[in-house]
Fold this protein.
Amino acid sequence: MTANGVFQLALALGMLLACVRPLGWSMARVYSRPAMQGERRLFRLLGIDSTAEMTWQRYAGAVLAFGFVSVLAVYAIQRLQAVLPLNPEAQPAVSPDSSFNTAVSFATNTNWQGYGGESTMSYLTQMTALTVQNFLSAAAGMAVLVALIRGFARRNVDTIGNFWVDLVRGTVYVLVPLSLVFALALVWQGVPQTVSAYHDVALVEPTADGDGKPVTTQRIAVGPVASQVAIKQLGTNGGGFFNTNSAHPLENPTPLSNLLQLAAILLIPAALCWTFGEMVGDRRQGWAILAAMFVIFLPLLGLTVWAEHQPNPALTALGVNQTAGNMEGKETRFGVPNSALWAVATTAASNGSVNSMHDSYTPLGGLAPLWLMQLGEVVFGGVGSGLYGMLVFAIVAVFLAGLMVGRTPEYLGKKIGAFEIKMASLVVLLPCAMVLIGTALGVSAEDGKKGVLNAGPHGFSEVLYAYSSAANNNGSAFAGLSANTPFYNGTLGLAMLVGRFGVMIPVLAIAGSLARKKHTPPGPGTLPTHTPLFVFLLVSVVVVVGALSFLPTLALGPVAEHLMTGSN
Amino acid sequence: MWNHLRTSMILLGVMTLLTGVAYPLVVTLLAQTLLPGPANGSVVARNGQPVGSDLIGQPFSKPEYFWGRLSATGPVPYNAAASSGSNFGPRHPDLAKNARERIDALRKYDPTVGAVPVDLITASGSGLDPHISPAAAEVQVRRVATARNMSEQALRALVQAHTESRQFGLLGEARVNVLSLNLALDAMIP
């Protein structure tokens, strides 16, 4: 690890921290200010009363209805793309199981991709189905977070906001403007943005395919890439335009585009911590949460960066100079430090875009991304979803602290009761259950075992990674797994649905219950929740829950593989 | 619930027009006007014919050309219409096998080749990596110079000219664009 490597990592994280306050503040304004007259009129045109507040049940109903309609729309566009316009490569209709998987994947902000973008999707599908969901699933996550924050901030009321208003505001005032600027910056660095067909160019040195037939041209896929990549990063979606995502030189052409995309992955999740502090009227609370995220993030980043610099014994034997580290599946322009930082950031945030192939990581280098997903995507996490997950862990943390000293737990002036803890348990347990049950199915069923590429414990890791990614709505993959089959498309789709809506509904229930409660002023026995002690407690809860749930599976996968490294 | 579904459909329709039609088309319009080169894939031409993209690698195996990273795309390497990595784990047998084949090929033309830089014997993530490290170019200088009947010194100067340092001296890694280097070689010594 060189000094320059450390500097590049520090630069990326420093840029991020500098943006937290201004962006966090603007987002708090976007969600709390009253509707302007013009806005109210526009909503009325769409038949929406923007002043009508919703109970948590109505809010959850709206979230579910919108999710359902979104899945149907994305499914339909994929099935019909062959007869729809903007399809210069004449891509045929996508298969029913793959369409289902992709529709669920994009509507749940997972963006798991069983398909290869440039060989499957028409431009119309990329634009009107996938890009649209990149915006809306992100805005929906932010809306649910804001509803939860209102639960903390409000007193003695039944309502937590209006989902339609929150959804539209997040999209129009936050995501679209940021994406516009970001997309143009990406084009400047070399990301294509066109609706013309792919290019055919003459190869400088003609080659031959597997059957010995001569190949004299190269077909270069292009398309409306920049507009999709911008929101794929800002919305922690991660679904690439091309099959190899941000490792593809046209999706991420330069080290600068890489730095910008990396910062964009973490930008909104980190800034929302400030938004949270601002909206509950105590900024220190937001800093405490952000600090807890960094405390988990940094050691795991260190582990992956270190592990990826280790030589592979299988190559050492051949006399290879491995000072550059483990370069299989990595791009020359990024090298190990920028690839490892990305892998950790994209799995800490529930982004899931990749700039290197995680399947080719060293066992311990791949362990950190895997475990970050299994922690429930709360270290930064998805836009909105990461912070509401972390706030649920904070509720669990004050509950545990309350048990220790025998007092009724409270958080931000709200007493935490049995109902909140029951709902919090659902939030924590449902994704864990989906990961473990799914993995068990995947490694037992014939259809599951067929998809594995690498033998031994690494193959187990491929299946474990897939369900960890799906159930926690991340979307990255150990991509050696052939997951575009009815078995994986179906079971992973189900895991994504449970991981998204099975978490959102209890979170909204907590929001509703908290909003009804009165505010309890802090007394001498109140545990302050902005101190290093609380940060430590919160980190411990997240880590212990993650470790207890997943250590056995990690031992069977990456740890076993690590112990076998160097032996035959 | 019916109310929710109706509102969802209306809102999804309106938002699709905004984020799925207007937004990408505005970006396209601006990109095509302001930055037509990169917006169309950074295609490079030789004698008026497009011969590749600055950002996309091509397969090379003749001794008179510099070789790039290994590529795992199918059915041919560097298939820019279907990007793919190998996804080999560190213990996958083909990882070492492909590395050995590449080393053997390097030594076939130049038996003096010693330790080979790791990027030259591994597959890139995209299968389309246009770059190699300066060290991976240096290892090939003797072979290319011999095949082209030119001095190693002159060739090294050309490699140097096609080496990009870290962006702004800070970001990413130093690298050599294989396609543009080979095109320059062809222009110099056809």
Chain A touches chain B through 128 residues (CB under 8 Å).
